[in-house]
Amino acid sequence: MESMRDMPGKPQIDTSTSNQSKNGVQEELLQQWELVANHLRAEIGEASFQSWLRPMTVRGMENGIVTISVPTRFMRDWAAAHYQERMTELWRAENNSLQGIEVVVHSAPSTETTDAPAKRGTVASAETRRDQHKDDLSAPLDGRFTFDQFVVGKPNEFAYAAARRVAEADSVPFNPLFLYGGVGLGKTHLMHAIAGHIRQSQPERTVIYMSAEKFMYRFVSALREQNTVDFKQQFRSVDVLMIDDVQFIAGKDSTQEEFFHTFNALVDQGRQIVISADKSPSDLEGMEERLVSRLNCGLVADIHATTYELRLGILQSKAHKLGTEMPPKVLEFLAHKITANVRELEGALNRVVAHSQLVGRDISLETTQDVLRDLLRANDRRVTIEEIQKQVASHFNVRISDMHSARRARSVARPRQVAMYLAKQLTSRSLPEIGRKFGGRDHTTVMHAVRKVEELREHDTTFNEDVELLRRMLEG
Ligand code: ADP
Ligand code: MG
Fold first, then answer.
1. Is position 463 within any domain?
2. Which of 25, 117, 207, 235 is the most exposed place for a label (fewest CB within 10 A)?
3. Both 221 and 189 in a single domain?
4. What pLDDT, on the 0 to 100 scale, is given for residue 120?
5. Which structural domain, as residue segments, surrounds residue 235?
């Protein structure tokens, strides 16, 4: 059981096909497929991966053509239209004898779509079972995603307040509520919190929560099974419809069309709609104008990137819930370093805690750095000279253009030197390269700046702390 959790999406390979290929070849194919699949997974995200790639089975390779099978014709067409090209490209990078990929439908009896047991729990077989129950229609909610567990700070307070408002109202305060923000910033968490809260406090209201991808999948299945009347009825009789990651249906015209009609029907009946996306309605590409304007009609709430304070707050709250003793220094360190999003932050914390429990040692800054070495290094690599200039300028309250200017006043020259010093410390750029980025200065100027800053750090505590703070922020 444990191993299934560890590898929720391990792609399959059919080792039973004993075509002329030897086992070694098959083994190699398996490895290549794993690499390709993992690559794609990072590109298309976990949900799409689970829906479309997970059910694929590699059959073998013949004359440079790899054959992959999927459970249904629909999936075959979908895979061909959306993933085949990229898959071929990625696979060719692993194996240059590959000529192409062929996607075929499992040669199983045609009853598979109606009553296949949910073996392996593939999306395809589970999805095509027709269920009349609205509870089944909704995706399960994650019990941890509640309002209580959501740490509120400047970047998300507005979205949080809007979500609470929708959850606590017994009417429709604004329609739709449109939540948007980057990946891992808490959109799904807030959506689940709303759904959970309404289900608990107003059990008579029907709440459906699902991803836009699932919405589309259901719709297309209904089309295929000529079952669209049921589909429409199911959706149009709910009180609260929540669709997560709506950017997924951008560019998918018929799904958008259906969504638009569902949307209008529900709004006209005074039902609540909640939507999330990775961009604002107007920034979503491939969305029809009339849909965009409807999405803009309600309340649009943006979840901004995390700040240091919010990250620290989240870490404190999560550490407390884990019941682990975490030195404040470690939490501060993580809050400085892991800045991408909350998901990554949680992952880092969990790793540190798991490690300390496994080896039975207390958590310290050293063990933390050790355990997270790969993650931290990946973060380090991202620092650019432009970012350094920006951070330093804002820290010392000078203009970014002063980083390039010829002005020599101490008030701008010192920050510029600090930025050069940090560029030397944090990037792999050479002195001449750094000089060029600072208004075409000579490499000796950069060298002088580095020395000057080193000297000041030794003698001026406040200055030293400033630089250290900047360094840690940039490394984050
Ligand atoms: P999104 O849907 O925006 O990509 P999620 O809602 O899945 O992001 O959030 C990713 C993870 O981070 C989840 O485990 C979620 O509980 C957690 N998370 C995000 N924001 C917060 C927050 N403000 N407080 C507590 N946990 C959060
Ligand atoms: Mg999400």
1. yes
2. 117
3. yes
4. 34
5. 128-303
